[in-house]
Amino acid sequence: MLEIKAGHHRVGIYPALGGAVGYWLCQDIPIFYPLINSHLAQNANQIIAAYPLIPYSNRIADGKFEFEGRHYQLDANALNGNDAIHGNAWEREWELDSFSKNSVLLSLDHDPTKNSKQQWPFAYKAQLKYTISVAGLSVRISFQNTDRCNQPVGLGFHPYFPRNGFVELGFTAKTVWNNGSNGLPEGRMSIDGRWAFDHMRALSKEEQLDNCYAGWDNFAFIRWKHLNAYLTMTSSPIFQHLVLFNPENQPYFTLEPATNMNNALNMPEISDRGLMILKPGQTVQGDILYSFSGS
Questions:
Q1: Is the previous residue joined to 121 through a cis bond, with omega within 30 degrees of 0?
Q2: Taking the model in full, what pTM does it have?
């Protein structure tokens, strides 16, 4: 593990475990929640607090999709044993490109002719840069299509946040996709009632939520009242979606910026599904900034 730090902030990075964040602490307060029952932990027996979603966010139903007239079958890596989830970058060892006191740059080259085509059938190069400052943590994700054909791409970042008693959450979006019991979108709904966070409200531990918000305005606010602490999350406009997962009676929740909606590869009829089609050699980049303030 590598550690970067600035002021009271310390961040641990695992290049060998999918480029994941092992912890983010400010004066020993965990800002990301270290968790052992993440996907990575099951494979590597490690506690993980956040990880990148490359080259797509969330699920692909049954690991199957069609793109430009060809059918593809991916290995299932979701807990249900059926779906492909969150791409393959979190399953791979990343290379260390540079390392300083407050910054780490990692890279990953995926070649399906040398690695598993069932993980992802297209070649790509990804870069992941973590930078810590006295204000907070920035995450930059870069992706280049290194294949000879077009490639469908989605990017995202998956942090776990501690509940720590009374937590309030606020953000705005245009609509929300409600997930069914299989974790796949059932339908788009207007945002009101229990789905709405445009007026900041408490996120109850008894409130089971698993939803993908579309048309997110790239700003979210989290407040831990008992700690007199808050976090703002801002992102590049390419992250059009925001996944909120609030498991019932668990000590954590997730708030995941993503370019694409869940199962986007199998929903071509949705104009704002957020899937990017990159030509050979084309590159896309997105930034996420987490600013933390605590007493």
A1: no
A2: 0.96
Which residues lie closer than 8 Å to 135 by C-beta, 6 or more apart? Answer: 291, 292
Cα distance between residue 22 and residue 33, in whole Å: 9
Spatial separation of the C-alpha atoms in residues 153 and 126, rounded to whole Å: 11
pLDDT digits over 133-164, tens only?
Answer: 999 999 999 999 999 999 999 999 999 999 87
Handedness of CA 291, 23, 162, 88 (dihedral sign): positive
C-alpha distances out from residue 253 to 48, 111, 222, Å: 14, 34, 11
Query: If you average pLDDT over residues 14-21, what whole number do you get?
Result: 96
pLDDT tens per residue across span 49-96: 999 999 999 999 999 999 999 999 999 988 888 899 999 999 999 999
Query: Which residue from 179, 205, 219, 143 is spatially nearest to 58, judged by alpha carbons?
Result: 179
Q: Angle at the Cα of 60 (from 189 to 206), degrees rounded to 5?
A: 50
Angle at 53 between CA 20 and CA 17, to 5 degrees: 25
Q: Which domains does the chain have, with CATH numbers?
A: 2-293 (2.70.98.10)
